[in-house]
Write a structure and sequence with these properties.
Elements lengths: L2 H9 L2 H4 L34 H25 L1 H28 L19 H27 L8 H9 L2 H24 L4 H4 L5 H24 L4 H31 L11 H26 L4 H34 L2 H8 L10 H7 L22
Helix pairs in contact: 3-4, 3-7, 3-9, 3-12, 4-5, 4-9, 4-10, 5-6, 5-7, 7-9, 9-10, 9-12, 10-11, 11-12
């Protein structure tokens, strides 16, 4: 092969070379518009997260939301709040065991999960989240043991172990810590996504943490509502607890809708495209927004005008939809983020700035490097430190 043939072969676009997994250069942009990147290839790599991560986000959100609601109910709900707090403590314990297992399973080397505890870095949402999850699991376990001693479940209430658990485990401080850690667990995952370079997650990222926290409260309230219905008790405290949890679920759904609308108004259509088209857009709009936010609100409203039996049925359906909608939101956002990472135009739209932002002006360079010599024409950069001034 001659040198000219080699150069022609090198200059051929991917469509002519028939390279695998490469799109033709004319597929993603118009002929009159230059490609944003070399052959319109992605500028960043999509995440390698598997289904474990949206499952972890979902279960962690339920546990965190339930902990917040349980802590608030313990001090603000009176006698009925004790019912909600009891359910929240047992639920948080169970999910705080399953959720970390899913997170560890997604690691490339799961047996090295302990290396995440080597440092604590406030500027890293991943590091902060690791310690939030660890603290939440420890507090959930302690409160569940104390609750079991109070209820006489596994640990007899008046036994020596039961009295020791009720005396040695301080309920007040741990309940406050449980609620605070639960709020952190429910919302830090959204902050973690916003801290990446993926356009769909980074654009409007200031709203992603509150959105995940609101979804955590809605799904936690849905899980607590279902537990209240499954318990089957019809006394006044149980009914009051169920109705209070239903109000939290409705308020959280309204907050979700407001944050979704604000995010749609803030994020450009190009960046937000994966959530408006395709299967992930359908899952997000139909499953998360329609099925997980609007439908539960409509059912809650209908339940206020229905009889007691129909109201309980509608409450159970609404709680189930809130849980399924939260899962749909997590899956859609993570998978749509992978699609967004493959779009170089979305990345360039995210990183576009005013003149001088991407490349500092000479004055800005002088401010940051006052000891650097001035630019001298016809002198190589490697010689500027020793070359005489002209």
């Amino acid at each position: 092969m001659s040198m000219m043939d080699s150069m022609e072969h090198y200059d051929r676009p991917p469509s002519e070379l028939s390279l695998p997994n490469l799109r033709p250069a004319t597929q993603a942009y118009e002929q009159s518009e230059p490609p944003p990147t070399y052959y319109d290839r992605p500028m960043i790599k999509p995440s390698l997260w598997r289904w474990y991560i949206p499952g972890y986000f979902w279960l962690g959100g339920i546990a965190g939301g339930a902990a917040v609601i349980g802590a608030a109910a313990r001090y603000l709900g009176g006698s009925s709040g004790r019912v909600t707090a009891r359910h929240a403590r047992y639920l948080s314990l169970g999910l705080s065991v399953v959720a970390p297992a899913m997170l560890i399973a997604d690691l490339h080397r799961p047996e090295r999960f302990y290396r995440m505890f080597r440092v604590f870095k406030v500027s890293s949402p991943l590091s902060v989240g690791t310690w939030i999850l660890t603290g939440f699991g420890a507090v959930s376990g302690a409160l569940a043991v104390r609750q079991a001693a109070e209820d006489g479940v596994i640990i007899p209430r008046e036994s020596g172990l039961g009295r020791l658990a009720r005396t040695a485990i301080p309920e007040g401080p741990l309940t406050v810590a449980h609620g605070a850690l639960g709020m952190g667990l429910g919302g830090y995952t959204g902050t973690l996504l916003a801290a990446t370079a993926v356009p769909l997650w980074a654009a409007g990222g200031v709203l992603l943490g509150p959105l995940f926290a609101s979804t955590a409260l809605a799904s936690g309230a849905g899980a607590l509502g279902l537990l209240s219905l499954i318990a089957g008790k019809r006394d006044d405290d149980s009914e009051q607890a169920r109705q209070s949890v239903a109000l939290v679920e409705a308020a959280s759904s309204i907050s979700q809708l407001a944050l979704v609308a604000a995010r749609d108004a803030l994020v450009t259509s190009r960046i937000n495209q994966p959530l408006r088209r395709g299967r992930w857009g359908a899952l997000y709009r139909g499953g998360a927004v329609g099925g997980g936010m609007l439908a539960p609100l409509a059912l809650r409203l209908a339940g206020r005008f229905a009889g007691p039996r129909a109201a309980r049925t509608l409450s159970g359906v609404s709680a189930t939809l809130s849980l399924v909608g939260a899962l749909a939101e997590r899956v859609a956002l993570l998978e749509a983020g992978k699609v967004s990472a493959r779009d170089p135009r979305a990345y360039q739209e995210l990183t576009a700035g005013a003149p001088g932002d991407a490349r500092p002006t000479p004055r800005q360079q002088a401010l940051h490097a006052p000891k650097a010599p001035a630019y001298q024409p016809h002198i190589a950069a490697s010689d500027t430190l020793t070359a005489p001034a002209q």
